Amino acid sequence: MALNIDQDHARFRDIVRGRIRQNLKRYISHGELIGRQGKDTVSIPVPQIDIPQFRFGSKQAGGVGQGEGEPGDPVGGEEKEGSGKAGKDAGEHALEVEVTLDELATILGEELSLPRIEPRGQTRIVAQKDKYTGIRRTGPESLKHFRRTYREALKRQISSGLYDPANPVVVPVRDDKRFRSWNTALQPVANAVIIYMMDVSGSMGDEQKEIVRIESFWLDTWLRSQYKGIESVYLIHDAVAREVDRDTFFHTRESGGTMISSAYKLCADIMQKRYPPSDWNVYPFHFSDGDNWSVDDTLNCINLLKDRVLPNANMFCYGQVESPYGSGQFIKDVREHLGADERVITSDIRDKDAIMDSIKAFLGKGR
Asked: Rounded mean pLDDT of 46-74?
């Protein structure tokens, strides 16, 4: 019975994964998952899956098997003529299912054919991990080793002459019990930091920020599945850059001019002081509408990327969000000066439907 339930549950999970995969682009484009995120899971409305279950009627409501009636009588009262026209559309049925972020990352990786990331800097950062490596005579019942306990009891009964092959009953006593023991081992752990930078000048509106918010969620989801420990840093900039918390990053309203170099300088300073490349896998992501203050500042940005950011980063990703107010020139300049550097990845994000392609561009090299 238990085996059948497990098999049914596995089949149901496969169905759910298939439905999520079919609708993944819609979830990515509209950001439905972000508002349904729990601590370690995401609640997803999956359409057209019904789980059969018994429903109890209200008391004293009558029904089949109650009261008078003859074979063939309609259930629930007299037959009546219907009113209105027949509908042609299917009914809406949605089931809320819980999916872990690890499962979601796996589905994302499979759908976008994302390669596994080969981390760097695994030698200095260590984490403690308990491994069950031995057996001891004391411990909690939850760690009791059944096979070793049974073997000790069997050995005791045979040696004392209490074992009867005709009636092979083995009853462990206190001294027979054996428990799993553990040792705390230090393991190297590859840690990563994602540094998000966003232009919040007057040309970046709510729609552009929503695109950044959705894409950041999926970038987070994938990178967290690749690393044991991960941190996120949020930088906003107009003419001046500053570090903020996540909520401020996605909801701040700014105005004024744009000097992208201020963000790159702050990013480089943070990388140097807090995240040395010997210990950290560093992923800077910058989102802007591509409207910079001057040609001179753009050249300053290129030099900052070449000299300070790229040497210490796994890769640098620039996503340009289309805005009716931005010139869109910056992405052209980056491609002109740094297009041959495989560590530099750029992406045009025209609207929400382009988010999936942008994620594929950023993460498709597995760096």
From this structure: 57
Contact indicator for 195, 285 with CB cutoff of 8 Å: yes
What are the φ and ψ backbone dihedral angles of 284, each rounded to 5 degrees? -85, 130
State pTM to two decimals.
0.66
CB 128 within 8 A of CB 184: yes
How far is Cα 267 from Cα 350, in angstroms, rounded to an integer? Answer: 26
Picking from 208, 196, 207, 215, the residue whose alpha carbon sits closest to that of residue 33 is 215
Q: Which CATH number fits domain 189-363: 1.20.1270.220, 3.30.428.10, 3.40.50.300, 3.40.50.410?
A: 3.40.50.410
pLDDT tens, position by position, 31-44: 666 656 666 676 66
| Rg, the chain, Cα only | 30
Give the residue extent of every domain in the chain.
1-50+93-113, 126-186, 189-363
C-alpha angle 160-163-167 in degrees, rounded to nearest 5: 165
Phi, psi of 343 (to 5 degrees): -80, -15
DSSP state of 165: T
Q: Which DSSP string do the residues of 276-299 spell out, in sequence order?
A: -TTTEEEEEEEEE-S--S-HHHHH
| pLDDT 10s digits, 147-184 | 889 899 889 888 888 888 888 888 898 889 998 887 76
C-alpha dihedral sign at 261, 265, 266, 271: positive
Q: Which amino acid appears at position 114 of this protein? A: L
* Other Cβ atoms within 10 Å of 229 Cβ, number: 13
Rounded CA-CA distance 136/180 in Å is 6
Q: How far is the C-alpha of 108 from the C-alpha of 27, rounded, in Å?
A: 11
